[in-house]
Amino acid sequence: MPRRPFVAGNWKMFMTVAESRHMVSELVPGLQAYVSVERVICPPFTALMAVKDLLEGTDIGLGAQNMHWEISGAFTGEVSPLMIAEMCSYIILGHSERRMYFGEDDQSVNRKVKAALAHGLIPIICVGETLEERDAGRTHAVVEKQVKAAFEGLQGHLGSEHASLVVVAYEPVWAIGTGRPSTVEGAAEVILKVIRPTLTKIFGKEFAEAVRVLYGGSINAQNAVEFFSHEQIDGGLVGGASLKPAEFQLIVQAASNSISSSK
Ligand code: PEP
Hints:
Elements (H helix, E strand, L loop, with lengths): L5 E5 L6 H15 L6 E5 L5 H8 L5 E4 L16 H7 L2 E4 L2 H6 L4 H13 L3 E6 L3 H5 L3 H12 L16 E4 L13 H20 L1 H6 L1 E5 L4 H9 L5 E4 L6 H16 L3
Parallel strand pairs: 1-2, 1-8, 2-3, 3-4, 4-5, 5-6, 6-7, 7-8
Helix pairs in contact: 1-2, 1-11, 5-7, 7-8, 10-11
The chain binds phosphoenolpyruvate (PEP).
Phosphoenolpyruvate binds next to strand 8.
């Protein structure tokens, strides 16, 4: 079964509610045609409700950028899976900016993955090595550890029929927001040699072959064509370029075209 391409826009901490409304009105008309691609927009928490209303009647999905794993409690400033699931179908988890600045670790990512699945949210699980780890030749070990940890305790709970309900994003930290993307071959190698084999060990080959694995890190309209035409790369998690409507449309178009390429 071919994997359905997937493109998500991570708006990070940009866009007020008013700006979000404007951004969605610019984005949506350009994205509508690409029905073969699973398209997702991830605005900040404060804009979720407004964006949800504007996406009504489209097949463009809504995601949040983080959440707590508990369903409620005395956790000032946090947002629970129950609250996210009222509005969203997707949740970005373990983004390197959360790991770097907010103490996110493999264990909390694992708790959040379990909470997401328990609430019917599709987790977009981010993994990737830092520059230091890459330079020390530790990329494969780091990514393997992150993938294993994210799915810890889920062995036996996810079969190939659940593969479309989980997304992994390989995002080398040094490529995020730097304008210095990975090479296509470099990203594909990590997916082929580390991410899918690790998923195979945990959930079996059928699941690992069916799950979408994205690339993220300085994707733009030009390099998206190359990244997405690689048979290992099923789409992208896009930061900066997701806030440029014309560019984001071209990125989604590249994902759509990748289906008919030699892939
Ligand atoms: C991201 O935020 O996940 C990301 C990949 O950002 P950028 O596309 O700006 O590198």
